[in-house]
């Protein structure tokens, strides 16, 4: 099941990449024809984003908890940028609703534990620095990443439900990546971006049958996003 989900996810990722490349081909020409320059990529902006992520979740307490969460992103973004010569620099922030989820099943002497980790929201706050290459901005970016997770465990014995628990955790970590952005009008721009996100290790304690179960999980993600921005 994880393999099929990952394969489907990579198809979506490749689809986003292809769409972005087509968009660059279509709009780079009109941008030049309208004499749109780097000023179209400076100032305060708001926008929307879609994307896909997949990664890995590993546990310090159980080698059997090692899965590859994946899912889609849909969110909003805002920020500010300025220019100095051919360079553009600024601050980007975003928050996205996420369908990213992963699961593992642990079995031992008739007992079965179903462990799931779902990311509800994923956000970043980053610095950005780039150079203009014709009408296209090529940039690098790095900063803070945040995620809201649902952690759940369901325990059964020989098919009979015993107990379950669910806890929320707030993860913070770092992110770094690169992207392209290009104007299509003096106020609108399109962009494609890759971010690696490392959430580090976060402790979560859940109770089964009155007994606490503590785990420390390590989460990292590869994300690809496509966005549209409107500048004021």
Which features does this protein show?
about 230 residues, mainly beta, Porin, 8-stranded antiparallel barrel, about 70% strand, disordered N terminus
Describe this structure in words.
There is one protein chain. This protein has 232 residues and is mainly beta. The chain has one domain (2-231): Beta Barrel (Porin), CATH 2.40.160. It has one helix and ten strands. It has one helix at residues 2-33; strands at 43-59, 66-67, 70-84, 87-98, 101-108, 111-133, 136-157, 160-183, 188-208, 211-231. The protein has an eight-stranded antiparallel barrel. The termini are far apart.
Record the SSE blueprint.
Layout: H1 2-33, E1 43-59, E2 66-67, E3 70-84, E4 87-98, E5 101-108, E6 111-133, E7 136-157, E8 160-183, E9 188-208, E10 211-231
Antiparallel strand pairs: 1-2, 1-3, 1-10, 3-4, 4-6, 5-6, 6-7, 7-8, 8-9, 9-10
Q: What's this, in brief?
A:
The chain is mainly beta and 232 residues long. It has one helix at 2-33, and strands at residues 43-59, 66-67, 70-84, 87-98, 101-108, 111-133, 136-157, 160-183, 188-208, 211-231.
